[in-house]
Design goal:
Number of domains: 1
Structural class: mainly alpha
Shape: globular
Number of strands: 0
Helix content: over 70%
CATH architecture: Up-down Bundle
Order of helices and strands: HHHHH
Bound molecules: fe (ii) ion
Oligomer: single chain
Largest sheet: none
CATH superfamily: Hemerythrin-like
Number of helices: 5
CATH topology: Four Helix Bundle (Hemerythrin (Met), subunit A)
Radius of gyration: 17 Å
């Protein structure tokens, strides 16, 4: 599916939202390639983009969670999910590189579901942390426990 940016995706933390837009742009690139009948040819490049941009984004998030004193379980949850994503994409990329015929629309469904869940669920912590910054108070660990 093509993903239109929606205000419900916003966390209020500009750097996070900008990077999420970048990720959605990559996903929509795969969507367009599939629509033009060249999904399979696009997969290799897309895996590279999904690895590089995700590395950059996960590093940003992990640094922010530490800097803004998110509760330790939030950082742990993010790190675990980030590791799982990296493994999953590396595995798909390796299978593709070894000649396995992956179905592009299935790859798109998996990565789109993963990123939407990441944005709409996992990253809601940044809404709380952004609120703490706006309110002019330190986002101490005790405050951001859901
Ligand atoms: Fe994120």
């Amino acid at each position: 599916m093509y993903i239109e940016w929606d205000e419900k995706f916003a966390t209020g933390m500009e750097i996070v939202d900008t990077q999420h837009r970048g990720l959605i742009h990559i996903l929509n690139g795969l969507y367009r390639s599939i629509g033009e009948g060249r999904g399979e040819a696009a997969l290799h490049g897309i895996f590279g983009e999904l690895q590089r941009y995700a590395d950059y984004h996960f590093d940003t998030e992990e640094r922010l969670l530490k800097k803004l004193a998110a509760a330790p379980h939030h950082l742990a949850e993010h790190v675990i999910r980030h590791v799982a994503y990296r493994r999953r994409i590396a595995d798909l990329r390796a299978r593709h590189d070894e000649g396995e015929r992956l179905v592009p629309v299935q790859v798109l469904a998996f990565v789109s579901d993963w990123w939407l869940e990441h944005i709409l669920d996992c990253d809601r912590i940044f809404v709380t942390l952004a609120g703490g910054i706006e309110g002019g108070k330190a986002a101490g660990a005790a405050e951001n426990v859901p």
